[in-house]
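Minutes, project check-in

Agenda point 3 was the complex the collaborators sent over. CS summarized: ten entities, 960 residues total, and the question is how they sit relative to each other. Sequences were read into the notes so everyone works from the same version.
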Amino acid sequence: MLFQVEMTVNIPADLDPEIAADTKAREKAYSQDLQKSGVWRHIWRKAGLYENTSIFEVRDNEHLHEVLMGLPLYPYMDMKITPLCRHPSSIREDDS
Amino acid sequence: MLFQVEMTVNIPADLDPEIAADTKAREKAYSQDLQKSGVWRHIWRKAGLYENTSIFEVRDNEHLHEVLMGLPLYPYMDMKITPLCRHPSSIREDDS
Amino acid sequence: MLFQVEMTVNIPADLDPEIAADTKAREKAYSQDLQKSGVWRHIWRKAGLYENTSIFEVRDNEHLHEVLMGLPLYPYMDMKITPLCRHPSSIREDDS
Amino acid sequence: MLFQVEMTVNIPADLDPEIAADTKAREKAYSQDLQKSGVWRHIWRKAGLYENTSIFEVRDNEHLHEVLMGLPLYPYMDMKITPLCRHPSSIREDDS
Amino acid sequence: MLFQVEMTVNIPADLDPEIAADTKAREKAYSQDLQKSGVWRHIWRKAGLYENTSIFEVRDNEHLHEVLMGLPLYPYMDMKITPLCRHPSSIREDDS
Amino acid sequence: MLFQVEMTVNIPADLDPEIAADTKAREKAYSQDLQKSGVWRHIWRKAGLYENTSIFEVRDNEHLHEVLMGLPLYPYMDMKITPLCRHPSSIREDDS
Amino acid sequence: MLFQVEMTVNIPADLDPEIAADTKAREKAYSQDLQKSGVWRHIWRKAGLYENTSIFEVRDNEHLHEVLMGLPLYPYMDMKITPLCRHPSSIREDDS
Amino acid sequence: MLFQVEMTVNIPADLDPEIAADTKAREKAYSQDLQKSGVWRHIWRKAGLYENTSIFEVRDNEHLHEVLMGLPLYPYMDMKITPLCRHPSSIREDDS
Amino acid sequence: MLFQVEMTVNIPADLDPEIAADTKAREKAYSQDLQKSGVWRHIWRKAGLYENTSIFEVRDNEHLHEVLMGLPLYPYMDMKITPLCRHPSSIREDDS
Amino acid sequence: MLFQVEMTVNIPADLDPEIAADTKAREKAYSQDLQKSGVWRHIWRKAGLYENTSIFEVRDNEHLHEVLMGLPLYPYMDMKITPLCRHPSSIREDDS
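CS then shared the predicted structure for the full assembly.
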């Protein structure tokens, strides 16, 4: 089941640089593990912004919640979540 | 070059049903041709809505403009357009 | 899987009264069938408004889409859709 | 009498972790007491967000006010409150 | 139990003048009956606008819903509804 | 001359508790003096919120400005101000 | 007593041109009479828009309401109304 | 050339009181000098708010920019700027 | 003196095609005359939208008003107008 | 390929003045280098505001992202980004 998740990152200017660097490193590792396992299907940077558009494939809403709450940068993020489904004009069977 | 395009379709209730059906059929054919040629990379329906989230791969802004203006349903659509680029956390080289 | 769906109904003033009455009757029957089958778990009227807050239990996003698109009043409705999950403070195991 | 209450929780990043943990524990106990007594009829987590949708059954507006003001996390919450009533299409007699 | 109701009236320019005049006359009679019975406690015109701020005293949400749905001008109105309660600084015991 | 004033109170979490308590006490006294003199005609709490809807009867805009600027909690308030007048449907001669 | 009134004019494209021309002529005469009598103190066009910013000097809210409701173009206008008072930094005693 | 400038003042609660008082005194002197020279044509307080509506007469956009950037309170202000011109219904030749 | 003008074009679907075509042709000629004379300094299409961003160089606000009101498509346009001035970081003396 | 970028600068009041001055100096140098190389085609100050409207000519979205992320003031800026293309009414071949 697919969800579009748009994330905006707002790291406070006064966050300790070491904590910031460590959190970003853990975020990257977390994201890449989920990409490899097929849960985080797509991630694109919005040009010129600390924002991304992502597509997740999860078992259900509960699974989506767990995955997002596990993001190391979650406390500094705003989230916009949209449930998706296959489009009738799509030529592909899988995630279109 | 990738763009996220979010389309909301508002077909007026008083549009002639034959014109509406014909326009939708041409829209579907137009979309599928662009999907086959790789320009319309993804199209997902937003669940419960006459809206879609699409990813286009185009040569440049001009190309995006031509592709969108050619949509048979364009006169009944609202568009939100966001330029995308590769995300540094992506594990994929292509469209991530 | 639960979704909160908030529906706002805008029936145009110039809709033929017979068509309006028939559509509302079919809407009510459609809603009650889905309530009996457990898909439309809750429906509340917002006091003073032609709006409702509903809770749906569906198999997945696709199922939600089909159920909502089947609403006889769908062409006259605005929809706000929110995926839900169990709350950690809930004392109930089912839909809380 | 039913009310829909949508709560968004914003715990400041610099809140003392012990105070935060204690407040959350008291919030959970408070919520569960009200669920057991039937006042807090439903509580759902919005997937991926620190937000919930709740349904309260209270004697009157005054009662609703007291119950919400008693929330240990109230100082960190935004509230959206909507009075509800039975929907004419509902098949249930109680809270639909 | 008190509710603040803010009403904005948008009578379409092409409404038959006789129907418009008749509807306004019925609206006025309906409002004055409810004022005499104490249900419609206050009504003020917003200066320069076809809008009013009203205070209703009703038994419950259901009662409020019935009263508002009975307004002859309801189809041409937008409504904003806010449940009220006594203010702790008020010097009055009744509706303050 | 009547004005509707909607006040939202945002006392910062880090305000010294003694100062906060003293300011609230002065606010209550100030409000009650104005209620007794007939200037602050009505004050209602919005259920579940640190907000109120108030009706002021003042000589003119200047008088309204002075009264509001004198509020001990003014620095922590957002204000929405609407000039009111008698409604043609009102059955009362005074403040309706 | 001074009020700032910002007016946006939306004359429908299908209004009979004679009615439109007559209404605009009456609007101009009405405005100039009020300017001569000192009630309509200032009127400025917002550059590039069918909008104006005006300053009215009226006896009270009721007077403002009557003046605005008398505008021949009122049915095609949106209004934003702001009560003004003398500014403590002003060097003038009268209207600024 | 005339501009409408709407200023909202947000002086932070923790600004040193001496600095605040000095800045306000300099703001008043700066404003009054510009009023005397005819650049700051009008200034009105919005009743009940730390906001003003002002009319400036400047040589060009550059001049407006310099005048506003020179405001001692500028760092604490939000600005809304609207270019104005003479209204065709105005009876006055100067700033109407 | 420079102004940024953002224009959104909404030609109604039921406009007579001949009138539409004629109006667009006159719009193009009008725009190109102003470009040649240096008044309409820049015009860019927003990709995928019937919107443009334009830069005008005019004598004053009055001149801007006349130029925009003369647009054949003006009745179908929404306008957002922003006065510009030279930027201190610009390396160019003219319109930068 | 052209992009319109609207930047709003919010330098926090408590930023160390030396750091602020140094960052602004580096911003200016960075901007002027990009102007000289033709990437930052235009920059205009919005009159009365710490905001600018800029036009960038870049190879692609990736290039735009790099250029904007390199801005020394980026952490204090909000960005609004719009892809542009040549307008059919433009008389110029290059950036119109």
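Noted in discussion: Strands of chain G lie at 2-9, 40-46, 51-57, 77-86.
Follow-up: revisit at the next meeting once the mutant set is ready.
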